[in-house]
Amino acid sequence: MPTASLQNPGIRASQPEIDRSLAEFVAGRLPTAEQAAIQLCRNYPEDAFGWKLHAAILQALGKFEEALVPALQSVALAPHDAEAISNLGAALQSTGRLNEAETQLRAAVALSPSSAEANNNLGNVLRGKGLNHEAEQYYAAALQLKPGWAEAHLNLGIALTDTHRLVEAGEAFERASALNPALVQAFNSRNMNRVSRSDFSEIVTGSDHALLLDPEGYISWEQRLYCFSYHPDLSAAQIYREFERWGERFPMPVTDFSRHDRTPGRRLRIG
């Protein structure tokens, strides 16, 4: 998961304006924060901070293509700002432009080796390119800088899973879920890891916690059903009831089959 970082470069916007806009962002009031960032960009178009903040907010809102515009502008205004370059790299990664993202993030790490966010983001890009062993090095660097960062522990766990180091991955997921009990993916990943190691302790409580955080999460439900299906201490009736609950919550299929050819006797294409 890419992350953005923000500090005040102190160019033109006043400190109270910056503090107000940052407070909205940190508090998770993203629509309000976005309006504040837009106002900063309008009032101080030569100030890289407003553009950097706007890019980070759009990333958090999942508007990845839109985030590229302010991210590029912030780097144009502050070409030696490692945070701005790191945020641009994260935006490029989110739109699937991994080679460009890697170039930007390597530049960010070179400019600021002490940036945990830049190291974490570069790890994400390398993992996306299948370079998991190299990604681990950057996650380790990020965690050396910020040992209590749950998201970086989660990312490290995913990279370790991809290289089949399940025990180490499990330790990373355990740390991530302990450090941030609100991180849904940490609990889901912890559950999947435990099942892979035939350890069914706390599977039910971990899955219940994930659903409490994200009751409409399709992935949380999907992984719950997978884990429960192999649980040796659950009866067939208990497992079946979970499938019924899933069906009640998601009655429509995710895949749209409405346009599939239904001609009787036609030759089927497999794969």
Structure description:
With 271 residues, this protein is mainly alpha-helical. It has helices spanning 15-26, 30-43, 48-60, 64-77, 82-94, 98-111, 116-128, 132-145, 150-162, 166-179, 184-196, 203-213, 218-229, 236-249. α5 packs parallel to α7 (116-128), α11 packs parallel to α13 (218-229) and α13 runs antiparallel to α14. The longest helix has 14 residues, at 30-43. The protein is globular, with a radius of gyration of 22 Å. The model has no long low-confidence stretch (mean pLDDT 91).
Shape: globular
Our estimate of the beta-strand percent is under 5%
Please identify the oligomeric state: single chain
Residue windows where pLDDT falls under 50 for at least 5 positions:
none
Question: Brief description of this entry?
Answer:
The chain has 271 residues and is an all-alpha fold. The protein has helices at 15-26, 30-43, 48-60, 64-77, 82-94, 98-111, 116-128, 132-145, 150-162, 166-179, 184-196, 203-213, 218-229, 236-249.
SSE order and pairing:
Elements: H1 15-26, H2 30-43, H3 48-60, H4 64-77, H5 82-94, H6 98-111, H7 116-128, H8 132-145, H9 150-162, H10 166-179, H11 184-196, H12 203-213, H13 218-229, H14 236-249
Summary keywords:
271 residues; mainly alpha; single chain
